[in-house]
């Protein structure tokens, strides 16, 4: 549960970053789903 919350926090943080970082976050999320 805590991990999920942390990931959510990271996503919000990445949103404010550059599009490139946003793409990285998306890729990481996909890998996490695996």
UniProtKB/TrEMBL annotation:
UniProt-annotated stretches for the region Disordered: 1-34
The biased composition feature labelled Basic and acidic residues covers: 1-28
Q: This protein is called what?
A: Uncharacterized protein
């Amino acid at each position: 549960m805590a991990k999920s919350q942390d990931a959510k926090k990271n996503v919000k943080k990445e949103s404010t970053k550059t599009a490139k970082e946003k793409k990285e976050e998306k890729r990481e999320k996909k890998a996490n789903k695996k």
